[in-house]
Amino acid sequence: MIQSKLLKSLLAATFASFALNAVSQTADTPAGSAADTASAVQDASSAKATRAANRKLTRSVSTALARTKGLDSTRIFVKSVDGAVTLSGMVPDVSQITLAVSVAQQVAGVKSVKNLLRVDTRSVSST
């Protein structure tokens, strides 16, 4: 009987100790979690802003290419990452490549232009 009461008391003390330890740990966690959450929200919002800026620059370059007289931009694809623009796709002749790169370099916000354009030899008609 004494052993049973002693065992119950030890178990109760152990559970109380674990409960107090858990409460003290969770008291420290919210401040850390709030800082982590705020940091994650800020990172997500800056990533979202970066993606929006990339899309805006891509649209600006695509629009400039489409408005350029003498340039067939229908098969030119534009990708932008932090001001670095990549032009890919096909154009009918070599002079179109030079013109497309020149136009892209003149768009505000473009830091560099990577040229992956190719001449479509199939578009040349044989008469």
TrEMBL record:
It holds the Pfam family BON. Gene3D superfamilies: 3.30.1340.30. Keywords: Signal. PROSITE patterns: BON (PS50914). It comes from the Bacteria. InterPro entries: BON_dom, Lipoprotein_DolP, Transpt-assoc_nodulatn_dom_bac. It comes from Caballeronia choica. Residues 1-21 form the signal peptide. This is Transport-associated protein. Residues 53-121 form the BON domain. SMART domains: BON.
